[in-house]
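Long-time lurker. I teach an intro course on protein structure, and each term I like to show students one example going from raw sequence to a predicted 3D structure in token notation. This year I'd like something fresh instead of my usual example. Would anyone be willing to generate the tokens for the chain below so I can use it in lecture? Attribution to the forum is fine with me.
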Amino acid sequence: MYFIDRYDAAMQLAPLLEKYRNEKGVILAVPRGGVPIGYYLAKHFDFPLDLLMTKKLGHPANGEFAIGAVSLEGSIIEETKGVPEQYIREETQRIRVQLEERYKKFMGNKKPVDIKGKIVIVVDDGVATGRTILSAIKILRSKEPEKIVVAVPVAPEESSKRIKLLVDDFICLHTPYPFYGVGNFYDDFTQVEDEEVLQLLNELNDRKKVV
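-- Reply from a regular --
Happy to contribute to a lecture. Here you go:
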């Protein structure tokens, strides 16, 4: 095992992110497993924490094959050959409604953080295929951040190579081979429930108000 739990993983990541401490940074956590990682790092660096609400847009004939990605505020379609425009419109709208409902559940009426000109640090508790983060990167890039950094405790080598090509900085503590799934590298990989996400986000927001 590489990590005791998500807190241990976050604290192992922290020294490698120290170079961004005095920058205008924002942490975007992939819900739900990435939220504890993001929470600990946001407290450590006193960065704002937001959620990375992005979902791949699957091909009508094979939902696992991504033809694009949808976020709260935008979408990118990369493969349209043989895909009806109506499907793209309707599926994009359906996904966006899902994302908006989920974001509101966690963040209330708060608007997503403006990332223009900032160091965006995307975090998760690990990467398997990397589809979620890969889908998000191009949409994030369109919002003109100064840099996009992806920081994860563990990822397979193949996924790491794909992510590295698209970001300004990729920080990964371990790229084990063979890779059997993120949870295999934690002693405690208890599933993160919605209630824990809400608790962590509320605690961070309350702390900001006090400060």
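Some talking points for your students: The domain at 6-55+116-206 is CATH 3.40.50.2020 (Rossmann fold). The mean pLDDT is 92.
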